């Protein structure tokens, strides 16, 4: 299954944001990568700023171009604020929820857990990271996977409690979406309106 496999620190420096998690590279080199990273930067065009925001969202959630465009198309056909709906669709992907619930320390690790069949939906193993989780779905850890070191260490600092729209049951390692998150519930530093403007051209 296709996904971004390139350098993470380089991308984080490009956006000056730890989009893949904590990065020492940002602390050491707080300027863009490349030969001219420290030089004076030209003023970016409106299009360039909008494109950067879209790329940032794509890398943050680990979504490729066609997937992202399809999600935007789906969001634009729903009633409501398109940018917020887009983020809600990204947030309710299975791989993102495995990360948000604290089952995995990063989205990349969450995606790997899903594809390697360690995660269940309503008791059934599901290996599709892009699966859209509904409010009634129960996300769980496969019984024989509950002792995996990656999962146990990640759950030791369970992050589900940070999000009021998620519920986590520690005893049986299951979680679910209580309600669709509002924009205030989504901590990502993404200016979604710029993405809407880009696709509206």
Offer a concise description of the structure.
The protein has 201 residues and is α+β, with helices and mostly antiparallel strands. 41% of the residues lie in helices and 8% in strands. The longest helix is centred in the first third of the chain and has 16 residues.
- CATH class of one domain, named Alpha Beta
Beta fraction: 5-15%
CATH fold topology of one domain: Structural Genomics Hypothetical 15.5 Kd Protein In mrcA-pckA Intergenic Region, Chain A
User: Which structural class fits the helix and strand makeup?
Assistant: alpha+beta
Helix content: 40-55%
Shape: globular
- For the secondary structure, the number of strands is 5
Q: Outline the low-pLDDT stretches.
A: none
The H-and-E topology, N to C, reads as: HHHHHHHEEEHEEH
Q: What's the CATH H-level superfamily name of one domain?
A: RNA-binding S4 domain
What does this 3D model show about the protein?
- With 201 residues, the protein is α+β, with helices and mostly antiparallel strands.
- The protein has a domain at 93-179: RNA-binding S4 domain (Structural Genomics Hypothetical 15.5 Kd Protein In mrcA-pckA Intergenic Region, Chain A).
- Helix content is 41%, strand content 8%.
- The chain has nine helices and five strands.
- A five-stranded antiparallel β-sheet has the order 2-1-3-5-4.
- A hairpin with a 2-residue loop joins strand 1 (119-121) and strand 2 (124-125).
- The two termini are 30 Å apart.
- The model has no long low-confidence stretch (mean pLDDT 86).
